[in-house]
Amino acid sequence: MKKLLLAPLLALGLGACAPAQPLVQVPTFEVQSVRLTRLNLPSGKDPALANLTLRLRVQNPNPVPVRLANIAGRFVIDGQEVGTVNLPNVSLPARGETEQRADLSLPVTLQTAGAFLRVARGQEVSYRVDGTFTADLGVLGRPTFGPFTLVQGVWRQPAILPF
Questions:
Q1: What would the pLDDT profile of 27-82 be if each residue is shown by its tens digit?
Q2: What is the pLDDT of residues 13-32, one digit of tens each?
Q3: For residues 105 and 109, what is the distance between their CA atoms, to the nearest angstrom?
Q4: What is the pTM of this model?
């Protein structure tokens, strides 16, 4: 009888020694869409600009709501940094998600013009957003996590330029 009780107790004891899941899990980021909406050539004193819309889905795997005070990143196309992304005050429900939209107006330089033209012509380019996020933990403070690659992928959309 003692042997029959000892086996389950031993299993419970060893199970307690197994590594547990972390208390807080990092939110995940996923691009829903990235779209070049306008490409302006330089005109007089106005510089060349690319306007785009980036939609991100941010998911919270935690059983409690989380507020991100800021998501800050560098937008990179074909290895060239083209601008920054800042999303303040992102509230995430417990085990839920939210979609965030960033409307960006980015300068077009000699180094980035080719990539923007390829997108405008409907051709593929690679992209990524490298950055950090700051969690608002109330009395526990505002720790910043990163830098790391938040999202990456291949960007291709229907052409917006006829040539």
A1: 999 999 999 999 998 889 999 999 999 999 999 999 999 999 999 999 999 999 99
A2: 444 444 555 677 889 999 99
A3: 13
A4: 0.80
Q: What is the residue type of 95?
A: R
CB neighbours of residue 131 within 10 Å:
23
Q: 3-class secondary structure for the chain?
A: CHHHHHHHHHHHHHHHHCCCCCCCCCCEEEEEEEEEEEEECCECCECCEEEEEEEEEEECCCCCCEEEEEEEEEEEECCEEEEEEEEEEEEECCCCEEEEEEEEEEECCCCCHHHHHHHHCCCCEEEEEEEEEEEECHHHCCCEEEEEEEEEEEECCCCCCCC
Rounded CA separation 6/11 (Å): 9
pLDDT at 97 exceeding the cut of 50: yes
Domain ranges across the chain = 21-154
CATH fold for the domain made of 21-154: Immunoglobulin-like (2.60.40)
- Going from the C-alpha of 125 to that of each of 63, 101, 137, 152, the distances in angstroms are 37, 21, 37, 11
At 116 the three-state DSSP class reads: helix
